[in-house]
Amino acid sequence: MDDNTIVAFLAIGAVVFIGFFGNLIFKRYKVPDVLLLVFVGVLLGPAILGGRLHLLTTETLEEFNNYRDLFLSVALVMILFDGGLTLDIRAVFESMRLSLFMATATFLLTMMAVAAVVYVAIGESIYIAMSLGAIVGGTSGAIVIPIAGRLRIRPSTKSTLVIESSLTDVLVILAAITLLTIVRVGEFNAVNLAGDLTFDFLGGALMGFGVGVLWLYALQLLQRQPLAYMLTIAVLFLTAGAVELVGSSGAIAALAFGLSIGNRGFVKRQITSVYLSGGSDDRIQRFHAEITFFIRTFFFVYMGLLFEFGTIDGLQLIVGIAMLCVIVAVRWITSSATSRIGTLPQEDSSALFALMPRGLAAAVLATGATTLLVGAPDLPQGIDLTALFLNTTLIVILGTTIIATVLSYRTEKTIDKRKRLQQREIS
Known about the structure:
CATH architecture: Up-down Bundle
Shape: globular
Structural class: mainly alpha
Number of domains: 1
Distance between the termini: 64 Å
Helix content: over 70%
Number of strands: 0
Largest sheet: none
Number of helices: 18
Order of helices and strands: HHHHHHHHHHHHHHHHHH
CATH class: Mainly Alpha
Strand content: under 5%
Radius of gyration: 22 Å
């Protein structure tokens, strides 16, 4: 075994240990582990410990980036499936109106506000500014779902946050790619965009939920077989891949598939011939929780590896901070409006405001944005668009993750304080 392999083994083991203890810290002190894992990734990056200790060089990271899209797609599908497993379908139906309002209002207002900031800063094409606004316009399901799942808030509020992040993941991808295509070819078709959005949301949801219901029938026959629950993961990836092949959203399908599997009782009441013992259901959830823990631990560490502070110049820093301020302001407006419409309690309203982190979709699109602009006429001169898109987006990702972590901790402490006061009143 060569030295690089030994170092890799040690690093993998250390990261898993850190992820495990981060989970314990959350249970004990209510501090989400997301920021800890991202910080570990920053430390392990080539610019800090990774390069000095020969753990990870810039060349090694570039080689790993060749598989980035695959890794991030697997992480997104697994985390969304996990989110679906833990959602109550009745709470989903109850929160759908608020989810749609929150997702649409937050995305559109954020995109326009960020576009205004970027356009003032660099001028030139409004579509380039709107593209960057679209990239950071939505929350990340890969970060929101693990945090929301642990907060002691209403199930309907958790559903609102999960569905919002899932919807905006798709909105971000479609809107950003559409706007970048407009910059390159100079054409826009609103009808096609509306059709793509509808097919992505409805097509992915219906196909994912339908396959999930059918899979419950199969699990009825397979539940006495050893490792039968492993096949659920296989069906998950087959479903996500098939849905993507027909042009719909594999991410939405993964969420809907998990929703049907996790709501065995609801499906049983609607389709009386379906039976799945609770033991089998519990095994699926326990097994998947362990897989998801492993994947999301490395996902957040990888998010930290993306940060290269030495490449950020003054303009990018100012624009990134301005974008972050705008995102926070828009989130406050839309979360306040949603809380009033849904008459949410204070803790739920605070959680709705707090969970604004950007992540997976934003990082991928910011990295590949300039590839989509190849051949575009009249691009801004004297501005490195690759660095501008990537570095400002990374500032937003780091900033919103810090805010989400701090405010989530504050929300949990507020809940503890309220419970202590209630106990004193009773006694």
